[in-house]
Specification:
Its EC number is 3.5.1.108. By secondary structure, the protein is α+β, with helices and mostly antiparallel strands. It has six helices and 19 strands.
């Protein structure tokens, strides 16, 4: 695990479309100072630029993606893939400049973001990284699933899904999150959806930019429509794990613990994170020196615990 904070070694630019808006998007990642965190600078329709910190207190909705913004103000939707890449590749501080209300979907995963970060490299900064250490289990449940944080000296994800369709069924993925593991096992896993839901999503103004170029699509006959098939036999649970990494990254610090979920999604990920951050007996804030016994404790995290108003969760 890394002791000191890091930023990227140079500016990188991306162009694409929003998977829901269908509109073109320009996005840039720019190096930032220590203790800046991930800061979105969003250009509104009138040209004004507003800044929003990527923390759970600024997540007003998790309907079809994870959104950062302010109620009634500017926002950036579908941030989870970019956030997952930044978190897994150990970027602590960066400015995200975006000229639209949605992060570009690229090809449905976050491989392009990972490759760009590797291309410009990382710069070690003077400030130490602070971790949110899980010291006792925290669990949330819904009618169909559950999620929990449990103590673990590392950053581990254990994700399980269960879909009625034969194309997916029950799948599980688990692993210790490192940059190399993420790049090899998760970064190329694409978002997915069902053909039967397309007309409903279009009618509600969603999935307007979705296509076989950026989504795995399951047909009415329970078969994969994409001509090239799947990138992994269990690509669905790998993408759900990628999403979980991105959603959990909004804690405002690195999680030192294990995150588990069953039949989860953006809403459940967000609810579990909120539960952990609210319970000061379940976590503490620490810095990591070379030896475990020398961990330095800090005051409980209070910056990211405001309760958002979550909308209905759909796939």
């Amino acid at each position: 695990m890394i002791i000191y904070q890091q930023t990227i070694g140079g500016r990188v630019d991306f162009a694409g479309i929003g998977v829901h808006s269908g509109e073109p998007v320009q996005l840039s990642l720019i190096p930032a100072d220590s203790d800046s965190g991930i800061l979105f600078k969003i250009r509104s329709d009138c040209g004004a630029i507003r800044s929003v910190a990527a923390v759970s207190a600024n997540v007003p909705a998790t309907d079809l993606s994870t959104i950062v913004g302010t109620p009634g103000g500017v926002h950036a939707a579908t941030v989870e893939h970019l956030m997952a890449a930044l978190y897994a590749m150990n970027v602590d501080n960066v400015v995200v400049e975006i000229d639209s209300g949605e992060v570009p979907i690229m090809d449905g995963c976050c491989e392009a973001f990972v490759e760009a970060i590797e291309r410009v490299g990382l710069v070690k900064q003077d400030a130490k990284r602070r971790y949110i250490r899980v010291v006792r289990p925290v669990r949330v449940e819904t009618a169909n699933g559950w999620a929990e944080f449990v103590p673990h000296y590392g950053s581990r994800f254990e994700i399980e899904i269960d879909f009625a369709t034969k194309a997916i069924g029950r799948q599980a993925f688990s692993g210790e999150l490192t940059a190399s593991m993420f790049k090899a096992e998760l970064a190329r896993a694409r978002t997915f959806g069902f053909m039967k839901d397309v007309e409903r999503l279009w009618a509600s103004g969603h999935a307007l930019g979705s296509s076989l170029d950026n989504s795995v699509v399951i047909g009415d006959d329970d078969r994969i429509i994409n001509p090239d098939g799947l990138r992994y036999p269990d690509e669905f649970v790998r993408h759900k794990t990628l999403d979980a990494v991105g959603d959990i990254s909004l804690g405002g610090g690195r999680i030192l613990g294990c995150y588990r979920s069953f039949r989860g999604g953006h809403k459940l990920n967000a609810l579990a994170l909120q539960a952990l951050l609210r319970d000061h007996s379940a976590h503490d804030i620490v810095e990591l020196p070379a030896r475990r016994r020398d961990i330095v404790r800090h005051s409980p995290l209070i910056a990211a615990v405001a309760a958002p108003a979550y909308g209905p969760q759909t796939l």
